Amino acid sequence: MSLYIRRAGIDDADAIAGWNIAMAWETESKALDPATIGRGVRAVFDEPRRGFYLIAELDGVAVGCLLVTYEWSDWRCGDFWWVQSVYVALEARRAGVFRGLYAHVKAMAGGAGAVGVRLYVETENERAQATYAGLGMERCHYYMYEAMLEA
Predict the structure, then answer these.
(1) Transmembrane region positions (predicted)?
(2) Phi, psi of 86 (to 5 degrees)
């Protein structure tokens, strides 16, 4: 099987939105609103400062994606690249798709002068945690907090 990683284009937006819906359901049993996620995905293409998507293709068929966003670190005077919205289609799992996506992001981040690559994972998603550890990522000593704001 041939793995190819490419930068996503606006023509990929519907597939990315669908994968995000599937990922949210699989990992959190959370039903995303298709209209909202559709607008959210397209907003990344509308404003490149928000980040970019990568698409993984196996033998010419798109089978997964991820989103990269940026976080400025004044402590390190550089950007962290955050990997988000990771999804690999069921039929393509265990075929090295995420490994390829991650290697691609890491190389791009290094070439761009980023100071590191980060991601967050659900506390119960032990399979994903094992995958990330297997790629050499380490669990941070930070907890994540949030305060959602009314729309």
Answers:
(1) none
(2) -80, 130
